[in-house]
Amino acid sequence: MSLACGSREPEGWAGxxxxxxxxxxxxxxxxxxxxxxxxxxxxxxxxxxxxxxxxQCARILHRGEEAGWIGTLHPAxxxxxxxxxxxxxxxxxxxxxxxxxxxxxxxxxxxxxxxxDLAFLVDEDLPxxxxxxxxxxxxxxxxxxxRLFDVYQGKGVPEGxxxxxxxxxxxxxxxxxxxxxxxxLVDAIVNESRQHxxxxxxx
Length: 203
Hints:
Blueprint: E1 2-5, H1 22-34, E2 42-46, E3 52-62, E4 65-73, H2 75-81, E5 87-92, H3 94-97, E6 114-123, H4 128-138, E7 143-152, E8 161-170, H5 179-197, E9 200-201
Antiparallel strand pairs: 1-5, 2-3, 3-4, 4-5, 6-8, 6-9, 7-8
Helix pairs in contact: 4-5
């Protein structure tokens, strides 16, 4: 089990006073899971736990089976413990953590990477994982990275929707990918996301 509480940044004149939150701990946990070489086997799904805050809680799945929990400590539990600030915690089964793949060397490509950034408008209650899964299904075998770099709600985004921004990187091992190939993959991603998730490209 891991627990985080308090300021996100060390005390200093240039730092703010923002507190660690659910997404800080989730990011740390995702980095840990990625080190196991099998990040795609893990999922986070919204759920409720009696010790965790409703709406700030997720069940952790490994290959479709429950492997742990992550969330913000429930206010009632926090009060019982005498904590003055929110605390976020996670618990993951050790046997699931130790089922990762041993890293193996792959030759580096001499050919350039191609990156495209896409921002989608989706319903605010749509799990980002659903968008990531659809994207990977359509992005082809040469996708080497899919990075979530922004989730935004506010001015310029319709009520009940959120903007999800993703950076996609492709690279072929033996040749340079051309614009036509990448555009075809992007079109497939956009069309599939629109049809099955109600997603729209943000202008």
